[in-house]
Amino acid sequence: MRVSIAGAGAVGRSIAAELLENGHEVLLIDKAPTAISVERVPMAEWLLADACEITSLDEAALQRCNVVIAATGDDKVNLVVSLLAKTEYGVPRVVARVNNPKNEWLFNESWGVDVAVSTPRLMSALVEEAVSVGDLVRLLRFSHGDANLVELTLPPESALAGIRVGDVAWPADTSLVTIIRGTRVLTPSPEESLEAGDELLFVAAQAREEQLEDLLSVRRSPEDG
C-alpha cells in the first residue's frame, strides 16, 4: 500500500515509521526545510513541497496513493490537503488530524475526510475507557455514513454475559468487530459467548449508540442469579 503523509513533524514521522515497519510505501511531504530529516525515517521517500499546491501533489503522484494522511499541526492545511486528495486525485482513503476540537465538525466528507482523528478527543476517550465499565466510549469518528468506532466493557451484571454473539438482537446499523478478552483479541463469531469484562469494539451509527449502550448494560433479573 502506498501512503502519502502531509506534515513531517513528530506526528507524521511516527506514523511513517509505523507504516514502514508494516511493509508499506510512505512519502513524507513538508514545505519546511527544517522538517526534512531523512536520517530520522531513512526508508521513507521525502518531498520538500507545499502539500496545498496542486503542482506539489502532482509531483507526489497522489493519484497512485491508496491513503493520504493530513497530519500537519494546522487544521486549515489538513482540510485543504484532504479536499484536494479526494476531489482532484480520487484517493480512496483520506485520514486527517484534528488539532483544535472546535474544528472537528468541519472534518467530514464535504472536505474529503474519511476518518478524522482528534488527539484531545482520543486522549479523553482513553481516560474514560480506563475508568468506565458499562459506559459507551467513542474512540473514532468515520465521516462516511455518520458512523463511529465505539467501545464498551461488558459489566458483570450485564444480561448478555454468557450469551452467544449470534443470539443477540443487535441494533440495526451496528457491527461488533472485535472482542478483547484479557490479552487475547477475538474475532466475534456467532458461536463465541460474551463474558463479563470483555472489551467490545463496534462500528455503529451515531443514532444507534444509546440503544447499543442500553442493550449491553441491561442488568440481569434477580432470578437469573
From TrEMBL:
PROSITE patterns membership: RCK_C, RCK_N
GO cellular component, one term: plasma membrane
Domain RCK N-terminal: 1-117
All residue ranges annotated as the RCK C-terminal domain in the record: 137-218
Presence of the UniProt keyword tRNA-binding in the record: no
Key words, A-Z: Ion transport, NAD, Potassium, Potassium transport, Transport
UniProt cross-references to InterPro entries, sorted A to Z: K_uptake_TrkA, NAD(P)-bd_dom_sf, RCK_C, RCK_C_sf, RCK_N, Trk_Ktr_HKT_K-transport
Single GO MF annotation: potassium ion transmembrane transporter activity
Name of this protein: Trk system potassium uptake protein TrkA
Biological source species: Streptomyces parvus
